[in-house]
Specification:
- The structure is a homotetramer of 360-residue chains.
- Chain A has nine helices and 18 strands.
- Chain A has helices spanning 37-47, 107-114, 119-123, 130-147, 174-178, 187-203, 230-239, 260-263, 333-358, and strands at residues 4-5, 10-15, 21-27, 64-66, 70-71, 74-75, 80-85, 152-160, 163-164, 209-216, 244-249, 267-270, 273-276, 284-285, 288-289, 294-300, 310-313, 319-322.
- Chain A has a five-stranded antiparallel sheet with strand order 1-2-3-7-4, with helices on one face. Chain A has a five-stranded antiparallel sheet with strand order 9-8-10-16-11. In chain A, strands 5-6 form a two-stranded antiparallel sheet.
- Chain A is globular and about 65 Å long.
């Protein structure tokens, strides 16, 4: 089940960057959800290469074809198959890498696991695999919007390297995020971030950073004790994205520097609803949503594939050096923003359906 | 499936702190693993209340009974049922809390989810639920040791509040950790940490901290792309523990402050084996173990239940105040160390069995 | 996952006939279902040994203890743990069978699978394992009755050996079935069936037969195309019961002797509802319930353990003979009736919850 | 998870007969299995329409495209995506059926379940969905052959209506089955069966029958007590095929007419191996394979779609009549033979991998 995720709203992705295409099957989508290929394409376009000067210049249109599960613009309850053909493959750029393992990439571990040196296999570790996630996430998004009209999920770049944006998760808007190619929401940090990424590209180097995500409009009650806690499933989903090294919710690691008295979120009543005055819990208590905004952060390491020569070994067990060629992202974060949102949509939809099942 | 975890080595926990007992069923344990109740008890004793002056003084012997799946000291391949009776229940201490929601605890969200005010229900959110995890983890540990004799999994307290221990994960030993009641491995920090926790208890306050865990002896190849990546499953397992707010592996959030050139782990050959000179990957690349030590950290918030009066609301929707009574941990970390190890054993055993299944 | 069943309403059984006890964990039970130990006991008493002169005289009270998940007579949404202690173990009767494989029993295959000669292991193949199923089924029954007040599930002995009862599934009542120790519903066949079973017991021989089951009050729409069709999940559930050799729904194998024109169930309208004039579909079309009674049959082989000497081999690979001792059922069907009902309750509850999840 | 099957070797099918295409994702396939599109095509050709005069004359080439998971003729361990485009859609033939429910077909129940009148949705109930199963089964077959070179799985038509073939499962060969368009293995019955099916077609009527399947070369030990017994998973797999009404293994329903003494399979030793003198168990005891041939039978009802006018109702709740148009199979069995084999391959591969996981 390695390529499947979800209990009731279940996706299965397939495909490599160097084969005919990539795709996803979404099983368990409720019927009668309005859905068009444009719904998917809008999100795929936020993820695709070549969208701006700070991402990889590969030319992939990433056009989705919906193969099943839709009729007359509505989901039917049947599994939805989605296909995106690969169009810009340049295997020659990978010839050298077929034998030398890229440091901190998945080349060596795929070999160790499967006993087969496969560019396609390693291709499962590329960001291209996330096309299926983003397409499926767009569908999950529509399911949630039908039932929870106030649902909003906004991810944004919180930091690139040591450049940290000043963003209030309680007021940030999707428009702010989409207004700049970095996908941050602090106008003052856009240019410094663009400059840093551009510099990294020119050096053949790379940088990482932190994406923060805020989710609004989720009612209390989502999340399944004890193993499928909402934050546990969100953590798994985010840590399954390429290049992630950390996940924290609410106060996160910083919260360990507080005492209980200062950390606890006191309850009060507002308009007849239970609210908390602070939100160090990040919208989740005991694994279950409490109605406050869900706020979490994901750490992305600097892209492993760099053009600078590094020491490494090859699949014959010999030490060698490698300077990657090809067209790579000097920083994955701008394109990772829609991935984080997609994974959040998927987890929340699955938990929403699970909660509906036990309600009287 | 909220109370089950694992694909092939699968555990299902049950029980509340205020009912007859707690327990676990382990399904999928290979046959012929030597197993005695002492194997479980040793780990349960590291988890149990009353073990030292810095944990809750509740008196629970936490004696395990193995109900099935063992014969003549060996596992049979049948599911292993384990029961621990509750012995020290003082429901009176909880009377007040039956109506007032403890801030940052699970009281309110359980109500919101299940529509029922249940002390037992909320009891699933208590640390007592982890008894089943620790017992099951002890069994998983033995499965791994049979097949991977160099397997070692050592968790330890890395920090309490702002007190940070200086510990080298590459050399730390289990004996060092177990030599002090905090379960840290920096002799100089034991007394300050004990003092801080003692002070918190006397104030009715609480503190949190970070647990680090190092795993040695895992061969390359464990972890299932793309959703069941090893770090993704570890993240989920750790974030399913009570009071956790963050997870990071290898360089984690700090790694976002490096560039790719400095962050990448260069490969070299040592004794015919592929190694990395640094370990910012934390032993996992592309979701698959690379043979280096697996190193991760988990953030635990300060205990939510404190004896200081706080503002809150009750289940009638009225604002009120609450000062918890009862006997609580001023800091969960010393007792959480065996929980972290247990969750790691469980995830690694599951992935080990999954990897065996696909090998020729 | 061998000992777990269900997607949303999930049970995990454990325990052997020769260990301390047997039990089950039910995960995913909706909250606020009224439940008492008497609800379970009533069904366990229909399953237990010693209940009449035609079943095994073993003396097991089979008293259930509910260990978790219930408070103030209501389910809380937490997993429900149930324990039944074994009280009448006579291991001496099994000494010989520890080496000689009982023909057509599971002794040899358990050895082959697990590589361990375990009476306890083989004990998973005994009817005692079904205690957990029956207890869990009683809970599932209550879930369905809350939401579907017209729900009725009635199993009965359709035939013993060549004695076939004449029973109309559309009118049969639970009272008719429970009025006699065979659990058939054709008054004229009770005495012949009792006589046959009694004769078999006196000869140390055994007989099998067919149990039919009718389920009423299920609305159209339950069942999940394409693999989790309602009849597919019912088939699996029934074929997972000990001693079963066949499953058929509606017209079953006899239906292959009809042409499409005669076999098809024509639709008509009755009181504004879509009905079928005949019910060769057995209440399921395309894997989904159609609102008509669900009717299926399960074939149970003659009990494998007989007291007559048979040729066999032992675990040293030597040919030998074996005449089983101990107290065994000469015919499992009277006690299997509540097992069939329990499995049907479980499957229908799981599908009911799954259907609720996708409804707007 | 309605469209997924399997624990370790997991398939997810998608697609409708009236959309762009159908397909399947196979997840969990071991690496380094030789695989070409011809391996799939050979089996798809046995399943496809228009292959002989006794099946539907629809013209579908059913050409498979492998989209992922293969490199240099070997599986890589990554999920295998397979696509078959639909080419011969004639939606006009279905216009009338968009409102009137075909008796004993899935039209009404899909409406009842999903609340949407969808030809595509109903298309999940068509035999076309089985393309993905057959393609996936061909891959599973190759996995088994690598590890179990004596593995053989042969299904054949045992009866059509009241015409029963005389076939010895212990000696039947794949060549015998494939030598005739009915896919039976009794030369004397081929012509009568062809004549009967031809007559049914000319009358616009249909017939059903029984397919028997024998599996050789499976070692003892496959099957997971207690819910995932081998016969339980086979039953589910077969009952998930369209038009099935019954499943039996070994002696099946006939076995209920024997006593235990006559029914039990006595063990003996042959060439140092444990064998049984008879095989009423059908190769499975206690849910686990015993090394003998696995033999089961599946009942297929007469095709529901017939050209004869029948009474029915439409989706406006009005009584009406319907005589189906279009091109349909007067008997599904010849094309169902490869489907039965495919489902058997899938179940056995999954259990084979599961057994490998627990072996030392």
């Amino acid at each position: 089940m390695s390529s499947s995720l979800g209990t009731l709203f279940r996706i299965s992705t397939w495909g490599e960057s160097h084969g005919p295409g990539v795709g996803v099957v979404i099983d368990g989508c409720p019927p009668k959800i309005p859905l068009s290929v444009e719904d998917l394409q809008k999100e795929l376009d936020r993820r695709r290469p070549g969208q701006s000067k700070i991402v990889t210049p590969r030319k992939e249109a990433d056009e989705a074809e919906i193969l099943s599960g839709i009729e007359n613009g509505l989901t039917t309850g049947a599994p939805i198959g989605i296909l995106v053909r690969n169009t810009d493959q340049r295997p020659s750029a990978y010839t050298e890498m077929q034998s030398a393992y890229r440091p901190s990439h998945a080349d060596y571990t795929y070999d160790a696991k499967y006993g087969i040196r496969s560019v396609s296999g390693g291709g499962r570790a590329s960001a291209r695999e996330t096309i299926g996630r983003v397409a499926a996430g767009a569908i999950a998004h529509k399911v949630l919007l039908r039932d929870l009209p106030n649902y909003e999920c906004i991810a944004y770049v919180k930091s690139i390297h040591d450049l940290e944006a000043d963003i209030d998760p309680n007021t940030v808007t999707a428009e702010q995020v989409e207004s700049n190619i970095v996908r941050t929401a602090d106008a003052a940090m856009v240019e410094p971030m663009v400059d840093l990424i551009t510099q990294m590209r020119s050096e053949g180097n790379s940088v990482g950073g932190v994406i923060e995500c805020v989710i609004r409009g989720i009612p209390p009650g989502l999340g399944e004790p004890v193993f499928d806690k909402l934050e546990a499933d969100l953590a798994k989903a985010m840590m399954s994205l390429p290049a992630t090294k950390g996940f924290e919710i609410g106060s996160g690691f910083e919260g360990t520097l507080m005492t209980g008295r200062d950390h606890n979120d006191e309850f009060f009543i507002e308009d007849g609803k239970v609210r908390t005055r602070t939100n160090r819990s990040g919208g989740v208590q005991g694994g279950i949503s409490n109605g406050e905004p869900i706020i979490f952060r994901v750490a992305f390491k600097p892209t492993a594939t760099i053009l600078i020569e590094q020491n490494t070994v090859n699949n014959a067990g010999e030490e060698t050096t490698l300077a990657a060629r090809g067209r790579h992202d000097p920083c994955v974060l701008p394109r990772a923003v829609p991935m984080v949102e997609a994974m959040a949509h998927l987890i929340l939809t699955d938990h929403w359906l699970r909660q509906k099942a036990i309600q009287a």
